Amino acid sequence: MAQDDLYRTVVLERARTPRYAGPLAGAQLQGEGSNPLCGDRVKLQAGVDAQGRVTALRHETRGCAICAASADLMAERVAGQDRARISQMHAELVTAVETGIAPEGLGDLSVFAPLHRHRSRIRCAMLPWSALIGMLNDDKDR
User: Fold this and answer.
1) Please, are residues 96 and 108 in contact by the beta-carbon 8 Å criterion?
2) Tens-place pLDDT, residues 109-131
3) Could you say which residues of the chain have pLDDT below 50?
4) Three-class DSSP labels, 70-112
5) What region, left, alpha or beta, does residue 110 occupy, with left being phi > 0 and alpha being psi -120 to 50 degrees?
6) 131 contacts 33 by C-beta, under 8 angstroms
């Protein structure tokens, strides 16, 4: 399957039937982000353990399919990860969407690499990540 076809398949599947949507009971962290240019909005809730690893992440996303799919794939990928690894994944995704080349180890998130040809859609994919990084940084500063 070509990368563009995989992108369309994964984005549509995750937008239509997200696996990590909805509230998280007992969440310790909450964050949100919005893109006023297109109307995308995401709310995040996370559980964290004593070592600062994200134990679970859930999202409530209102927006385009790219934003919803990105939030859902992000929630899947960050479970069990610490802040350093999450920051690394974020940086790798930025590289993928800006260059079209997905670093090895990015997993399903590599489906967003074709967005480098659609610059205006990069914000859609990155909004959930910006909200997550902001939420984790806010918690670290407490």
Assistant:
1) no
2) 999 999 999 988 999 999 999 99
3) none
4) HHHHHHHHHCCCCHHHHHHHHHHHHHHHHHCCCCCCCHHHHHH
5) alpha
6) yes
User: Which strands, in side-by-side order, build the sheet including 54-62?
Assistant: 29-35, 40-48, 54-62
Closest CA to 42 of 13, 16, 22: 22
pTM: 0.92
Find, among 137, 6, 124, the residue nearest to 68 by Cα.
Answer: 124
12-28 pLDDT per residue, tens: 999 999 999 999 999 99
Kindly list the structural domains of the chain, giving each domain's residue range(s) and its CATH number in brackets, ordered by start: 9-141 (3.90.1010.10)
